[in-house]
Specification:
Blueprint (H helix, E strand, L loop, with lengths): L1 H9 L1 E6 L19 E5 L2 E2 L14 E5 L2 E6 L8 H15 L3 E5 L7 E16 L4 E14 L5 E15 L6 H31 L3 E6 L2 E6 L2 H9 L2
Parallel strand pairs: 1-5, 2-6, 2-7, 3-7
Antiparallel strand pairs: 4-5, 7-8, 8-9, 10-11
Length: 231
């Protein structure tokens, strides 16, 4: 009777292997980036159904009846979801040309990405004759510049999809589609956001010649020089 009670209380668990392919297709609009340093800071697990007082609860990303599913990453079972998300961010940012690395806090002289995992899950919605798989990822992130200035504060990056799967789908297949669907798109959003900030902050060189004397400078300095020397 005691053994039966334990089974009913704890349920069943299984850890699914993460098989992730970093990188983006050309159609994603992600361009190769100069080796800017980017710190992917430890993320907070803020998912609503996670028991914050239970460390093992942070390793689960999906539920089906009495079953709970965790993630196997880098040869280890039941790795916390926030840690896996951080590690995959590093992989994808490296593939985009950044000098990306995991960090516990913002790193001086590097761009930093910090925040929390709001949603990271798949769920099978059972109909009368079919199963619809719903896969969702939502991250609330802050992007900080090398000088500590916030380039984007607590911005929500969200993607999800729904797909009819007939009579059912393997949980490992759902994980693969979660990672290479909504999750990959969210990472792409974040990289695109950072790249846009880099372009906006990059000084624009202008080349002006006045009476045969070349003038060089950024777009703010050149007009000042011209105003002072064309009176």
């Amino acid at each position: 009777m005691v053994a039966a009670a334990v089974v009913l209380t704890t349920g069943c668990t299984r850890s699914l292997e993460v098989k992730y392919n970093p990188g983006f297709a050309p159609s994603a609009g992600i361009k190769a980036q100069a080796k800017e340093r980017v710190a992917i800071v430890d993320l907070t697990d803020a998912r609503s159904w996670v028991d914050k007082s239970d460390e093992q609860s942070k390793t689960f990303f999906a539920k089906a009846g009495s079953w709970k599913f965790g993630l196997t990453y880098d040869g280890k079972d039941y790795v916390p979801v926030a840690k896996v998300v951080q590690s995959l961010f590093v992989e994808d940012f490296k593939s985009a040309g950044f000098d990306a690395f995991a960090a516990k806090e913002a790193t001086p002289g590097a761009y930093s990405i910090s925040g929390k995992v709001v949603v990271f899950e798949f769920e099978n919605e059972k109909g009368v004759f079919t199963v619809t798989a719903r896969r969702s990822v939502s991250l609330a992130l802050t992007i900080t510049g090398k000088d500590g200035a916030k380039l984007a504060a607590d911005t929500l990056f969200t993607e999800n999809d729904r797909e009819g799967e007939g009579m059912g789908v393997m949980h490992s297949t759902n994980l693969d589609k979660l990672l290479h669907g909504p999750f990959k798109k969210v990472v792409g959003q974040v990289i695109t956001k950072l790249q846009a900030k880099l372009v906006a902050s990059d000084p624009v060189e202008v080349h002006v010649s006045v009476n045969g004397v070349p003038v060089q400078g950024d777009r703010d300095a050149a007009p000042v020089w011209l105003a002072a020397n064309l009176r």
